[in-house]
Write a structure and sequence with these properties.
By secondary structure, the chain is an alpha+beta fold. The chain is built from 4 helices and 3 strands; from the N terminus they run E-H-E-H-H-E-H. It is elongated and about 70 Å long.
């Protein structure tokens, strides 16, 4: 049994009374497949929970930042924001819709350019790269209410392709 078996998540709707582990999986898709199999067997899956454990932050560096790239990114973001604001203003304003949209896009571009360059200058070269990051789990545990644990384990043992290694045990 995993150390997560007595875990309680302090959110309404995300708690189980006396949860017990049905299995631990290396990939979310495998945990999801196990719960789907239980559902296909008419198991009360509303008593189950998939919990990601051993969380880590992963950051993928996507490129080098230069003043030119920052300026271009700010300019394009500003244009999009200006177009959106201009579209809204043109719906409720008076005058040329095209003129309103064009002027707000121009102001947006200027604002986006200045904002991006000021922000980049504030880092003083401490972060000259762009990246995307995500929090990911390295293991996924399927938990179930204690009163359904025995039946859940029995069903998962009969799941095609299920061996002891499939359930982390």
């Amino acid at each position: 049994m995993s150390s997560q078996a007595n875990m309680r998540v302090p959110r309404s709707g995300l708690t189980l009374d006396f949860p017990q582990s049905l299995g631990v999986f290396d990939e979310y898709a495998a945990a999801q497949k196990a719960v789907d199999f239980l559902s296909d067997q008419e198991f009360p899956v509303e008593n189950c929970m998939i919990v990601g454990t051993e969380l880590k932050q992963v950051e993928r560096v996507t490129g080098r930042l230069t003043t030119g790239r920052v300026a271009l990114g700010g300019l394009l973001s500003g244009i999009w924001l200006g177009l959106f604001v201009g579209l809204i203003f043109s719906l409720f304003g008076q005058g040329s819709a095209l003129g309103i949209i064009a002027s707000t896009a121009l102001f947006g571009a200027l604002f986006g350019l200045i904002w991006a360059l000021v922000g980049y200058a504030a880092t003083r070269g401490r972060r000259d790269f762009s990246s995307v990051s995500s929090i990911v789990a390295t293991r996924y545990e399927v938990l179930v209410e204690h009163k359904h644990a025995a039946r859940g384990r029995e069903l998962l043992a009969s799941m095609p392709g299920a061996g002891a290694s499939a359930f982390g045990g």
